[in-house]
Write a structure and sequence with these properties.
The chain is mainly α. It has eleven helices and four strands; from the N terminus they run H-H-H-H-H-H-H-H-E-E-H-H-H-E-E. The strands form two sheets. Strands 1-2 form a two-stranded antiparallel sheet. Strands 3-4 form a two-stranded antiparallel ribbon.
Length: 248
């Protein structure tokens, strides 16, 4: 991690957001910049290797309203994760996501652009701070619910409606999240299952053991274990069988 710290870029997501905003403005001016920097595997193999990086600067929307929310959220998510993880860890997470998306475009075909990278930032934040509230289109909402909505649409919709290549591509694009959080989520799910099994066994044991009305404080017999026994209640409220009644 010390080696990664020396190579890490402080404020990485800020630079990504600024360059996204710049490309968006150039797109509004009808500049053909997208064709020059998009991730095209055929052109990369011809030597245009800058496309392996520059595709993350292409906004996937032409809406002024949506680009505002998208860039604001991406900036905020990057700042939050960098403050939580540190620069090196955030860089590793983001570049792993880039590598996954690039691999899916090269070998599987689907190219989801940088939107899925921002989605992985949301997933990371929602996992680390699920009850943190943000303004989602001016409405306060916890991160876990925002993440769930994003999982359902568009990514869940694409996963269910797409073919095998699309499904595998989505999983490959989430490789950074799976590496960082997969083992933790697996252990939590396994522990939760163990807790549920223990709770079920406990509830079953309670149902199997009949409740008793009388129990001797001294020997522990009940009317269930010794139907012939007779029980008395002492002045202090404790109950005894007649064989162990207090002398006083």
């Amino acid at each position: 991690m010390n080696f990664l710290s020396r190579l890490a870029i402080p404020g990485l997501i800020r630079y990504v957001v600024i360059l996204n905003a710049l490309v968006f403005l150039l797109m509004l001016l009808n500049r053909p910049i997208v064709e020059m920097i998009s991730l095209d595997p055929a052109l990369v193999l011809q030597g245009q290797i800058w496309r392996l990086v520059t595709w993350i600067f292409i906004p996937t929307t032409s809406s002024m309203l949506w680009i505002f929310f998208y860039l604001m959220f991406t900036w905020w998510a990057g700042e939050m994760l960098e403050a939580t993880w540190g620069t090196a860890r955030l860089n590793l997470y983001y570049f792993l996501g880039m590598a996954g998306c690039t691999a899916s475009a090269f070998f599987l075909g689907p190219n989801f652009g940088n939107t899925i990278l921002t989605f992985t930032l949301l997933l990371a934040l929602a996992t680390l701070s699920p009850d943190l509230e943000i303004l989602f289109f001016f409405f306060p909402m916890k991160l876990k619910w925002v993440a769930l909505l994003s999982i359902v649409y568009p990514w869940g919709y694409l996963f269910v409606g797409g073919g095998t290549s699309t499904q595998v591509a989505i999983v490959v694009c989430l490789v950074n999240y799976l590496i960082f959080f997969g083992p933790q989520l697996f252990l939590q799910a396994r522990n939760q299952r163990k807790v549920e099994m223990r709770r079920a066994r406990f509830e079953a044991s309670k149902r199997d053991v009949p409740s008793t009305l009388h129990r001797c404080e001294t020997c522990g017999i009940t009317e269930m274990s010794n139907p012939e026994a007779d029980f008395r209640v002492a002045d202090d409220g404790r109950e005894f069988c007649t064989a162990h009644l207090p002398q006083h």
